[in-house]
Design brief:
Largest sheet: 4 strands, parallel
Distance between the termini: 25 Å
Number of strands: 4
Order of helices and strands: EHEHEHEHH
Radius of gyration: 15 Å
Shape: globular
Strand content: 5-15%
Mean pLDDT: 92
Low-confidence stretches: none
CATH architecture: 3-Layer(aba) Sandwich
CATH topology: Rossmann fold
Number of helices: 5
């Protein structure tokens, strides 16, 4: 890893409709070309939750081009090679993941599923905002790491620690 490298990161969640979509959008915006984020699900819902897109919009981030997709897309020939793989839900963390080429560094950054929130529309909106805030904070910490200076074991430990924030 070098200082001028563009790093590819994949955020995985079971349904790929909310948490992983939010993380993809936030890293693509904050990464400023240094990172390229993607998202996928082990059992994709087939549609992005409207409140995930609304939350990105409230953060003044792009809302177009997102779709719920299977992680199988990223094991096909021509798929990006990932430097980082993050699971953002507990179910995906416990699943048997595909073998990813390139030996990516992985970490579990579990957050509650805002799509499962019940109550009023405002309460549901707040659940999405809370998850986005947590992911934003973790991504800011990740983005600030001196990636070119960390060995694999130190990097793994840092990513693990970020997931506890």
């Amino acid at each position: 890893m070098t200082a001028d490298t563009t790093y590819n990161a994949l955020f995985i969640c079971t349904g790929n409709s909310a948490r992983s979509i939010l993380a993809e959008g936030i890293l693509n915006e904050l990464g400023q070309g240094r990172f390229r984020a993607y998202s996928a699900g082990s059992q994709p819902k087939g549609e992005v939750h409207p409140l995930a897109l609304a939350t990105l919009g409230r953060l003044n981030m792009p809302t177009a081009g997102y779709r719920s997709k299977s992680w199988d897309e990223f094991t096909a020939p021509g798929a990006p090679v990932f430097d980082f793989i993050f699971t953002v839900c507990d179910n995906a963390a416990g699943e048997v993941c595909p073998l990813w080429p390139g030996k990516p560094v992985s970490a579990h950054w579990g957050v509650p599923d805002p799509a499962a929130a019940t109550g009023t529309e405002e309460q549901q909106r707040k659940a999405f905002a809370d998850v986005a805030r947590t992911l934003h904070r973790r991504i800011e910490l990740f983005r600030s790491l001196p990636l070119a200076r960390l060995d694999a074991m130190s990097l793994q430990r840092e990513l693990h620690d970020i997931g506890k924030h």
